[in-house]
């Protein structure tokens, strides 16, 4: 395709989508709650910022004990993951606040941890959120040959072992993102043949300045405190590998499990059989809805169906919206995919990866 926005037509909007929006809007109006700009979200952001700063300070100025410093780096990695999932994710969706300036400020969270918010909004908000699990469009489920994440990708011999070795790839993904984003931004690259938008002056600022701040935070200050390059590199690698393991594995549980669909596109017309909202329900899965800690820490990513249907709503509302969506789905005969526990979602992801790795054809549109 020659432009940055793919041309795929969904089925005409149905009563299902209208019913969803009406009942969710009714929930907010009847309870006098705002979908964004919530004090609970600002407080949560302050907690996570404190988590990151506290872990970083402990590593730098805490006891000169290697095991304790490693634990500090691990804690920092958990903080960075929470940083990205709970703060940067909402901000880059525009769901943190109705004020674009506030969203822009908190979107720098992604840039600070090495992910370009400018590129993320194109790759994630458009190619993934609009065209979820569609071949050649959803870049988030493309394994680049290393792994096979959908039946729409070609199988290679080593994929029969992917359910085992994929866990060793997750920690490396932040480095892959950083290098890939840098290359695409500088050389005007593309995702799956879809060129990235031409950056404006403000996009260049957003790409460069937060990286300078991050470099000072993670490199200059530790070096000024007397840490060697090797010590800084090892500590930073530990933190980012922990962050990668958490963030990527959580994404997998939302879209790479047995219960979700990988629909076909009629390439003669570039049409999809389902309307957009129904596609989002079929291609996403929730997990561990009763786990209070995960509901808080994962930034609503364990309510992936709710997030895909209402990406403009702050994630702190997802637990209350889930029963509403489940009720509407039941009324319209649409399967709402939910794994009751974190463990059951991991088990389903394992079985699906193992199935994709076997030399057996799997229909692209999996029911």
What does this structure look like?
There is one protein chain. By secondary structure, this protein is mainly alpha-helical. The chain has a two-stranded antiparallel sheet. Strands 3-4 form a two-stranded parallel sheet. α2 (39-61) runs antiparallel to α3. It starts with 14 loop residues before the first helix and ends in a 10-residue tail after the last helix. It has one domain (15-357). The chain is 59% helix and 2% strand. The longest helix has 28 residues, at 66-93. The protein has helices at 15-30, 39-61, 66-93, 100-112, 117-128, 162-169, 173-187, 201-224, 229-255, 276-282, 292-297, 304-309, 318-331, 342-357, and strands spanning 190-191, 194-195, 286-287, 338-339. InterPro entries: FA_desaturase_dom, Fatty_acid_desaturase. This is NADPH-dependent stearoyl-CoA 9-desaturase. Belongs to the fatty acid desaturase type 2 family.
Keywords:
367 residues; mainly alpha; 14 helices; globular
Shape: globular
Give the proportion of residues in helices.
55-70%
Sheet-strand content, in percent, reads: under 5%
Uncertain segments are none
Largest sheet descriptor: 2 strands, antiparallel
């Amino acid at each position: 395709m020659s432009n940055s926005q793919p041309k795929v037509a969904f089925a005409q909007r149905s009563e299902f989508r209208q019913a969803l929006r009406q009942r969710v809007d009714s929930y907010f109006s009847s309870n006098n709650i705002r979908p964004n700009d919530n004090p609970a979200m600002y407080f949560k952001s302050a907690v996570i910022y404190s988590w990151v700063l506290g872990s970083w300070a402990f590593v730098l100025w805490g006891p000169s004990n290697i095991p304790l410093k490693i634990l500090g780096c691990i804690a920092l990695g958990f903080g960075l993951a929470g940083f990205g999932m709970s703060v940067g994710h909402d901000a880059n969706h525009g769901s943190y606040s109705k004020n674009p300036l506030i969203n822009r400020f908190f979107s720098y969270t992604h840039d600070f941890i090495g992910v370009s918010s400018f590129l993320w909004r194109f790759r994630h908000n458009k190619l993934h959120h609009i065209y979820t699990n569609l071949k050649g469009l959803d870049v988030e489920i493309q394994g680049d040959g290393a792994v096979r994440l959908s039946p729409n990708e070609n199988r290679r011999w080593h994929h029969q072992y992917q359910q085992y070795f994929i866990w060793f790839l997750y920690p490396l993904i932040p480095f892959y993102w950083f290098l890939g984003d840098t290359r695409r931004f500088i050389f005007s690259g593309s995702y799956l043949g879809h060129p990235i938008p031409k950056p404006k002056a403000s996009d260049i600022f957003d790409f460069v300045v937060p990286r300078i701040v991050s470099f000072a935070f993670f490199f200059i200050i530790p070096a000024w405190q007397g840490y060697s390059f090797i010590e800084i590199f090892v500590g930073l690698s530990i933190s980012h590998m922990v962050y990668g393991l958490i963030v990527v594995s959580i994404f997998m549980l939302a879209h790479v499990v047995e219960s979700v669909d990988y629909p076909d596109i009629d390439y003669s017309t570039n049409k999809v059989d389902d309307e957009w909202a129904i596609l989002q329900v079929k291609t996403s899965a929730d997990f561990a809805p009763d786990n209070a800690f995960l509901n808080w820490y994962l930034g609503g990513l364990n309510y992936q169906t709710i997030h895909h249907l209402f990406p403009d709503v702050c994630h702190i509302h997802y637990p209350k919206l889930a029963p509403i969506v489940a009720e509407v789905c039941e009324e319209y005969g649409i399967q709402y995919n939910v794994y009751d526990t974190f463990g059951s979602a991991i088990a389903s992801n394992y079985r699906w990866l193992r199935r994709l790795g076997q030399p057996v054809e799997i229909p692209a549109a999996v029911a």
